[in-house]
Description:
By secondary structure, this protein is of the alpha/beta class. The chain is built from twelve helices and 13 strands. The strands form three sheets. The protein has a seven-stranded mixed beta sheet with strand order 1-7-6-5-4-2-3, with helices on both faces. It has a four-stranded antiparallel beta sheet with strand order 10-11-13-12. It is globular and about 60 Å long. The model has no long low-confidence stretch (mean pLDDT 98).
Amino acid sequence: MAKLRQAKAKDLRYKDGKILCSMCTIPNPTARRARELFLESNLGDPGLFRGSVELEKEAVVSLIELLHGPATAEGFIVSGGTEANLLALYAARNAAKVAEPEVVVPESAHFSFEKICDILKLKLVKADLDGEYRVDPEDVEAQINSHTVAIVGNAGSAEVGAVDPLGALSTIAENHGLPLHVDAAFGGLVLPFLRELSYAVEEFDFCLDGVQSITVDPHKMGLAPVPAGGVLFRDSKSLRCIRTDTPYLTEPFQCTFIGTRPGASAAAAWAAFESMGREGFKRTVKHCMDVTSFLQAQLEEANLEVLVKPAMNIVAFRTANSKQLVSDLRQRGWYVSYIPRLDCVRVVLMPHSTKLHINDFMRDLRELA
């Protein structure tokens, strides 16, 4: 225990407010307790843990309803966005059954797609972005050919939080008979509540007929403990393409990539959703956006270039030497991201961030920049 305490003391703490680069945060307290209750539960052998299976199904239904999924929709609580994206492209590749398969993604697609395409032997084709760092639908369509098995769009890019024109991508997908996968790992639990807070939010989920699968992570803005990702499919057809027989377990097959899956993750996600409810999530998202707007105003007052008006709680900005600034800020204990492709500083305003933290951050930033 002494060794554990020493190790824990070396970790940064979200509550100190200096982690400004992470899409995770302090977990919901009820979700923490739920996780502890289910530590020995294994969703990979569901016949042994029926209560855990029920909680996973209810958590998935909550996500499906939030994202306007049809009654046929199905999904799983998985390890995170990488596994969710992997399963979506795995299903798309297997359903297509074409030689030398390709997938068209935005240039801003999450780095997990590089790994996924390497594993699945998919050619990764990147489409250009517009001036607001959203994918250009015309370039997406120009990249499609007889080898294309899927299109990917962002509902909140990891780099700057941009939401791609998913309505246009959905139409393109339908016209070409392709599935559209939406990576809403971060935005899936932000955008619906922004709409309820009267922000202008374009359709991005199963409302669009071309959307066949969605990644949405409870361990990000869902305030569930890590790991708790989520993947949703419009119907079970996709799952039939990725079934694996499990002859010696209590159920005959699995549709997830990871075999042994923690029931604790599903229980924690369920508990976070039930504990917070829609009103709780709305308050949380409003807090994050208030702090985001506060930071944006402070940066503009300091004559720093904000790349794009934040579509959600991510702010990207530039200085004369953004890379050096990130290094200098880290020396003072501030952890922000540097995006080499855009030569910018990236700040994520999560529920643990406050305006007091931003005041302290800006004091150091003004000195360094």
